[in-house]
Specification:
The protein is α/β, with parallel strands linked by helices. Among the domains are: 67-138 and 252-336, 3-Layer(aba) Sandwich (Rossmann fold), CATH 3.40.50.1000; 177-248, 2-Layer Sandwich (Alpha-Beta Plaits), CATH 3.30.70.1020. 32% of the residues lie in helices and 19% in strands. It contains 9 helices and 13 strands. The strands form 2 sheets. Strands 5-6-4-3-2-1-11-12-13 form a 9-stranded mixed sheet, with helices on both faces. A 4-stranded antiparallel sheet has the order 7-8-10-9, with helices on one face. A hairpin with a 5-residue loop joins strand 5 and strand 6 (166-170). Helix 3 packs parallel to helix 9 (318-340), helix 5 packs antiparallel against helix 6 (215-230) and helix 7 packs across helix 8 (285-294). Removes the phosphate from trehalose 6-phosphate to produce free trehalose. Trehalose accumulation in plant may improve abiotic stress tolerance. Its cofactor is a divalent metal cation. Belongs to the trehalose phosphatase family.
């Protein structure tokens, strides 16, 4: 999959005075991500946490030493990983520089984005055809077309891009679509009197955003969601960053999507693969767990604060994610070039 990289650059040192605002006061500098002129206070708890989850940038050489003779596969979350967390979920745009970094990494290694958003929405944000997409927390995945895999064929269908390349769309929650549409109408009716609520239709799951809901109204919002779920026993609720998620109650999450894509790529139970998963949300922990159980690969959490995680490494914010991807694609391009000349 390797092709000529576009304007590949080396990793820039990370500044401890950089930070990213995750509030409605975010602002974006020209060509980059949200920054602030205020210095970041030294947090001893964060320093201790970093000792257990060291920076993937400073640990890059040690990490990449384990990649020799293995196929790297890259998995990425979207919100908070490739784009900053913003007050309006419809405006979570990635920068052109980040798009270039993802494009370059996908030209070197198989790359997939696994998000809680709908697959179509993530594609609208990313706009890259060289990447596989998995939306609705892995419930809607488009991956490579293999003749056989161990998953239920009734939930898989063939699809072709504009150039005639074949893919497989896997939707294990397809039977829940009518119920999701019904619940979309219901949740809008139940929450329409609560100021600040934003309902996002992610096709196979629903997101109830409450970033702009007043504290005194949150209890009522949570109660309405609970009452609705009580009438739909085949669904359950989960929590994200300022969002309540409504999802079908099937055993499927981002970790299962990761396993499905690895098998579709031909790496089921393979010892010759090195998966890398980068994400910032608690739903990404399911994917981190899969990599830890496999005993191979690198789960990397994006966080500027200490938190419980199964990740082995960390990155501070999307800016550091971009630097890591740029350095990894440069390494991939250089090593592919060397291999081709041997």
């Amino acid at each position: 999959m390797a092709t000529r990289l576009y304007d590949a650059i080396g990793m820039k040192p990370s500044s401890q005075t950089e930070s990213m605002s995750k509030s409605k006061h975010d602002h974006v500098a020209d060509g980059g991500y949200a920054t602030t002129s205020e210095p970041v206070a030294v947090d001893q708890n964060y320093i201790s946490w970093m000792a257990k989850h060291p920076s993937a940038l400073s640990s890059f050489n040690r990490m990449i030493s384990g990649a020799k003779g293995k196929q790297i596969v890259v998995f990425l979350d979207y919100d908070g990983t490739l784009s900053p967390i913003v007050s309006d979920p419809e405006c979570a745009f990635m920068s052109d520089q980040m798009r270039a970094a993802v494009r370059d990494i996908s030209n070197c290694f198989p790359t997939a984005i696994i998000s809680g958003r709908s697959r179509e929405k993530v594609y609208e944000f990313v706009k890259l055809d060289s990447v596989y997409y998995s939306g609705s927390h892995g419930l809607d995945t488009i991956g490579p077309a293999l003749k056989t895999n161990s998953y239920d064929k009734s939930y898989q269908k063939r699809s072709f891009d504009n150039e005639g390349k074949e893919f497989i769309v896997f939707q294990p929650a397809h039977d829940f679509l009518p119920a999701v549409k019904k619940m979309l109408t219901e949740v809008k009716e139940r929450t329409q009197s609560i100021p600040g609520v934003a309902i996002e239709d992610n096709r196979f799951c629903l997101s109830v955003h409450y970033r702009h809901v007043k504290d005194e109204d949150y209890g009522r919002l949570e109660e309405e969601v609970k009452l609705m779920l009580a009438n739909h026993p085949d669904f359950h609720g989960t929590r994200g960053k300022k969002v309540l998620e409504i999802r079908p109650s099937i055993k499927w999450n981002k970790g299962d999507a990761l396993k499905y894509l690895l098998e579709s790529l031909g790496f089921h139970d393979s010892c010759n693969v090195l998966p890398i998963y980068i994400g910032d949300d608690r739903t990404d922990e399911d994917a981190f767990k899969v990599l830890r159980e496999r005993g191979e690969g690198y789960p990397i959490i994006v966080s500027s604060t200490p938190r419980d995680t199964m990740a082995l490494y960390s990155l501070h914010n999307p800016s550091e994610v971009q630097s890591f991807l740029t350095r990894l694609s440069r390494w991939g391009f250089d090593n592919t070039s060397v291999a081709h000349h041997q």
